Amino acid sequence: MTANSRRKALKSRLASGEIVVAPGVFDMISVRLADTMKFDCLYMTGFGTVASYLGEPDAGLATYTDMLNRVSAFCATAETPLVCDADTGYGGLLNVAHTIRGYERAGAAGIQLEDQEFPKKCGHTPGRRVIPLEDMVKKIKVASEAREDEDFQIIARTDARTTLGLDEALRRGEAYAKAGADVIFIESPESEAELEKIGKSFDLPLLVNIVEGGRTPQLTPAELQRLGFSLAIYPSAGFLSIARALEKAYGRIKALQGTTGLEAEMMPFKAMCELMGFQAVWDFDKAHAD
Q1: What are phi and psi of 198, to 5 degrees?
Q2: What single-letter DSSP state applies at residue 120?
Q3: What is the architecture, at CATH level 2, of domain 3-242?
Q4: Distance between CA atoms of 182 and 285, rounded to whole angstroms?
Q5: Where does the signal sequence lie (predicted)?
Q6: Helix and strand element counts for the chain (H, E)
Q7: What is the pLDDT of residues 70-100, one digit of tens each?
Q8: What pLDDT is attached to residue 124?
Q9: pLDDT in tens, 172-227
């Protein structure tokens, strides 16, 4: 499937009325595994990608070059449409245009831009501050103009809810929709009533961010669809699960207990080899053996 066809497929699914669920991917193993499961969309999480790639917090430390490297690698591997986090666009309006073109040419199906001040902070964490509404509107307009493929989805995120309240977040979402955003993302609603109000406020597809232990209620995809959401992302589910599994396995090794008894909780080594593409290596070696 080409990048253009992936974008068309995602755009069509978001308009279908049935909710799309997207797991967070953050490294090449998670991308390969999620891609085999035939999701309609994958989400390149900023938190997880920065953590796995740089070993740093998602606090504006990753550069455009860092993230484009990951976008390119992920999109080259996955057949599934990928929505990719681009923080604040990595600078001013010229930087936003450059970011849009870079992510699009790397193969992303969509890009997420947020209205935080630089350096940004991870969603669902304290201390997030937003830029003036008018400045973000300009970013969305530039993003819309810069894309070469009209099916490339521009997701406009506002972090205004936590510090300025839901009404301001809704006002910003409406302004971003008028500026050319394809999907609206009101970050960190704090109750089912707030989710319902968001769902009734827009005609565009809506994204909801499900963070285990975060501010937003843990509703089922069916419930989120009923409230009006088109895309539910689960950015942290993968890396939180892996971190706990590693903690358990490494702890047993450190305690001189070995890993006997953990095999049932692990992917079989043969299956991991298959996932990572070793069969092609073995076939190549066989075909070119002396």
Answers
A1: -60, -45
A2: P
A3: Alpha-Beta Barrel (3.20)
A4: 47
A5: none
A6: 13, 8
A7: 999 999 999 999 999 999 999 999 999 999 9
A8: 59
A9: 999 999 999 999 999 999 999 999 999 999 999 999 999 999 899 999 999 999 99
Beta strands in 86-152, from DSSP E residues, in sequence order:
110-114
Neighbours of 86 (CB within 10 A): 27
99-125 per-residue burial string, b: 16 or more CB within 10 A, e: under 16: bbebbbebbbbbbbbbbbeeebbbbbb
Instruction: Read off φ and ψ for residue 155, nearest 5 degrees.
Output: -105, 120
Query: pLDDT, tens digit, for every residue of 251-287?
Result: 999 999 999 999 999 999 999 999 999 999 999 999 9
* CA distances in angstroms from 185 to 18, 145, 172, 277, 289, listed in the order given: 17, 20, 10, 36, 54
pTM: 0.94
DSSP H or E segment with residue 197: helix 192-199
* SS3 annotation, 212-234: CCCCCCCCCHHHHHHHCCCEEEE
At which residue do the structure tokens 């955003």 appear?
181
- The most distant pair of C-alpha atoms in the chain lies apart, rounded to whole Å, by 71
Taking the alpha carbons at both ends of the chain, their separation in whole angstroms is: 36
